[in-house]
Each structure stands twice: as C-alpha cells, then as structure tokens.
Design brief:
104 residues, 4 helices
Length: 104
C-alpha cells in the first residue's frame, strides 16, 4: 500500500536526517585520526551537516504542525518521559497505526 504523500515526505525527511547523522559521526571520527592540516575542511563539513540537520528539523516540525492529527499524536508522545521530537517523529513514521488500533 502506498503511503499518503505527506507521510512519504515525512518518512523521507527522517531518512535523510539519519543519513546526515551518519555522515556527521564519520567526520567526527576522522577529526580524531587525521593530521591538523585537514581539520579545517572536516570542520566545514560538520558545520554544513549541522545546518542541514537544523533545516530538516524545521521542515519536520512544519509538516507535523500542518496536520492536526499528527500534532495531537506528537504531543501525546512528547508527554512520555524521555521522548523528544526525533523519537516521536520516528515512531509516527514507522508506526503510522500507532494510536489507531483497538482491541479488535
């Protein structure tokens, strides 16, 4: 079954966000191993990734705020201790049936 367009966009943004985090981790690991001569380019890459992550987070917030059902679901998830936006958004994307099932 094909996901609705907004849910697909939402899932795609989370995938790109995850990929950015992986790239950030790789670059941070390189910072520890590389000579000082290449630290500046690596730091530039890290700064770029950080800006992209901030942009993606804003897009995710905007997308969730545009759908009242998603806002309510996010707010409910955020009420649980230890749940932040990223976990709430991931659960909403990976488990779209969350909160919709009944005992039948």
């Amino acid at each position: 079954m094909l996901k609705p367009e907004k849910l697909r966009d939402f899932s795609d943004l989370l995938v790109v966000r995850s990929q950015c985090l992986e790239m950030s981790t790789m670059q941070k690991n390189r910072l520890l191993r590389m000579p000082k001569s290449v630290l500046k380019p690596i730091q530039t890459i890290l700064n770029t990734i950080k800006k992209e992550l901030q942009g993606i987070d804003k897009q995710l917030d905007k997308l969730v705020n545009s759908v009242s059902e998603w806002r309510q679901r996010r707010d409910l998830l955020l009420s649980a201790k230890g749940v932040g936006n990223v976990l709430a958004y991931t659960l909403m994307s990976e488990l779209p049936e969350l909160g919709k099932l009944n005992r039948k």
